[in-house]
Design brief:
Helices cover about 30% and strands about 20% of the residues. The protein is α+β, with helices and mostly antiparallel strands. Helix 7 crosses helix 11, helix 9 packs across helix 15 and helix 12 packs across helix 13.
């Protein structure tokens, strides 16, 4: 598979740049909020801007950062403000003197340009800059290629390579030739499991259309809400609010999330949120959950909300945009509410669904802890400044559906995937398992994300040994059987079906397709599994390497367990692309990164201690 490389570009549009970055209308005549200035500066750094001076001179520079407003910023050599300079030297009265000035050009020079005479030309995004969530989602949609189109492009490139080597005299001399067709391998489609809901109701996933299921059954363990709060950032009118609450109650009754009382309603905004939230927590009865209705995505505000909820007050929070709750005709979107309730029920400690008894693999029929681990690294521009964050989750119930989390802050200079404190993490999770079940697990199965093949031996030498030491520390002589599986998604292998085992809509292979012969390692246990329904683009199989196996699991047992765990992701009624514990570890690491970014921005003390503090005060699945 020859990969196609896609790059992000900023294109000049009709909308002004400031509004596009901040996602809101900005009054350019007033001084900007410091948070908005930080957001804007972060986006501008490293980008090229063009400007035209009043005398007609044009220049193009890279932006170093933002300075004070043109009205206040003094030019060192002349001892006058930028606003006064333009009036004196160019006879130009600035229209927006309260906007920050751009600091451009060499970092050793003081070239300050008023924002109003600049514009952003179309340009490639600097490689070190990270795309925002909206741009990332847009790029994924634009670059998604159907299996048929991807196969055609690969074959076109292959034919060009084949023709080149056919006519190359050196290739002929050394007997080098290139195969002109793709490698054909045999695969199997695993049978999907059945899913259990409340009152032992079973949902059967059709074999011809696996990967998702629809059900009207109630959650296996639905929670109740008595004391909860809605914080409104969008100033909903009374009719919209009444319609929303009415639908909350009716959808909740349908799915098994019981609302025993109407929520406490509070209006708030970004500026007053901290005070409003803290006042809610001071009430006699602390809320069981706080829902925040936002006008649009706001990364800085989201990080603030989650840090207050998860770390400071240990209260589940649910953020949702107004456009998610309401359709364009202003009626309530009940499907969106159902999806939101899946997350809310999990955060409250409920259980949405589990594997039906007849589908439960034999491995899950004995006390077992399923673990997932991932490491979140700092963005390229923050290497050496922000540390890597390790997240490890461990299942706390027999159905492997609820997980306890341990977070650790790694050394800022360490970019390796190795988790340094695995012994302490494993010990804490084993103690948690005993606390919830009154038993120690007979087996431990670890699904470890993000380890490259060159690091397998390091993982065995450090993390696996640390897990064994943790078991001995828990109780002398305690030796559970450990299986260690590495989960890899960053590869270029793709499968293109040549029979009818495909989705008719997009042509991707069916969920449950597994390949363990033909393209696998000759003696290491590895397999490729497509466990999800590819909705857009070409499905990417997940590559699993078993690097340690005390349990001597057969290939069939390993593949079945892995595939079935992909159906236990609580946020949707779908089978996801890799096992739920790995997904949860990724979500927990991402949440820890948001906590860390927020605390760092606010220059808080003891950040490491706050990040690593036990999250058991809040319900197990706070990160979903």
């Amino acid at each position: 598979n020859k990969p196609a490389i896609a790059a992000a570009y900023f294109t000049k549009g009709e909308d002004y740049y400031i509004g596009a970055v901040l996602g809101k209308h900005v009054n350019l005549e007033k001084e900007m909020d410091q948070r908005d200035i930080r957001t804007l500066e972060e986006d501008l750094k490293g980008m090229k801007v063009r400007y035209e001076m009043p005398d007609g001179r044009k220049r193009c520079y890279r932006v170093n950062g933002l300075k004070d407003t043109a009205r206040k910023l003094m030019i060192p050599d002349l001892n006058i403000s930028v606003q006064e300079y333009f009036l004196k030297e160019h006879s130009t009265r600035l229209k927006y003197p309260n906007l920050p000035c751009l600091w451009v050009g060499s970092a050793q020079k003081t070239i300050y340009i008023p924002m109003e005479i600049c514009y952003m030309p179309s340009q490639a995004m600097p490689r070190h800059k990270k795309l925002n969530d909206t741009a990332t989602a847009s790029m994924i949609r634009k670059t998604a290629v159907s299996p048929q189109e991807r196969k055609r492009k690969i074959m076109d490139g292959l034919r060009q390579s084949t023709d080149f080597y056919k006519n190359d005299e050196f290739a002929k001399h050394f007997g080098i030739s290139v195969e002109s067709s793709m490698l054909e391998v045999n695969g199997r489609v695993l049978e999907p499991p059945s899913i259990q809901y409340a009152n032992k109701k079973i949902c059967t996933i059709p074999k011809t259309n696996p990967g998702s299921w629809r059900t009207r059954e109630q959650y296996m363990q639905g929670k109740s809400l008595q004391n909860w709060v809605i914080m409104d950032f969008v100033n909903m009118d009374e009719n919209d609010y009444k319609q929303l609450i009415s639908n909350f109650f009716s959808v909740g009754k349908q799915v098994g999330l019981n609302f025993r009382s109407e929520p406490m309603y509070r209006q708030s905004d970004k500026r007053n949120f901290s005070t409003d939230f803290e006042n809610l927590m001071k009430q006699k009865e602390k809320p069981e959950l706080v829902m925040i209705i936002l006008f649009m995505k706001d990364g800085e505000l989201y990080d603030h909300i989650k840090t207050l909820g998860d770390n400071k007050f240990c209260v589940p929070t649910q953020c949702v945009q107004k456009k998610t709750l309401f359709k364009k005709d202003r009626t309530v979107n009940r499907q969106s509410i159902e999806n939101i309730f899946l997350k809310m029920n999990s955060k409250l400690g409920g259980l949405n669904h589990s594997l039906a008894p007849e589908s439960r693999p034999d491995t899950l029929k004995r006390p077992i802890m399923i673990m997932g681990a991932d490491v979140s690294h700092a963005a390229p521009e923050s290497k050496g400044i922000k540390p890597s964050l390790a997240a490890v989750v461990g299942s706390m119930n027999p159905s492997a559906t609820q997980y306890l989390t341990e977070i650790r802050v790694q050394d800022a200079g360490q970019n390796e995937e190795i988790i340094q404190q695995m012994e302490d993490i494993t010990l804490k999770l084993l103690q948690g398992f005993y606390r919830y079940t009154n038993r120690k697990p007979d087996k431990i199965i670890m699904y470890r994300d993000g380890v490259s093949e060159g690091q397998f031996l390091k993982v065995l030498a450090k993390e696996l040994i640390a897990m064994h030491r943790a078991c001995q520390q828990l109780e002398s002589g305690y030796q559970p059987l450990i299986t260690y599986i590495v989960v890899q998604k960053r590869h270029h292998t793709r499968f293109f079906p040549i029979d009818d085992n495909r989705y008719p809509k997009n042509g991707n292979v069916l969920a449950g397709t597994v390949v363990d012969k033909g393209i696998n390692h000759p003696y290491e246990g590895d397999f490729y599994l497509v466990s999800h329904e590819g909705i857009q683009g070409t499905s990417r199989p997940t590559h699993y390497h078993t690097i340690w196996d005390d349990n001597n699991m057969s290939a069939d047992e390993m593949e079945k367990l892995t595939y079935y765990l992909c159906h236990l992701y609580s946020r949707c009624n779908r089978s996801v692309s890799y096992p739920a514990p790995t997904y949860y570890a990724h979500l927990a690491a991402d949440r820890a990164r948001k906590h860390h970014n927020h605390m760092l921005t606010r220059k808080e003390h003891n950040i490491k201690q706050k990040i690593e503090s036990p999250t058991t005060a809040i319900n197990l699945m706070y990160f979903v």
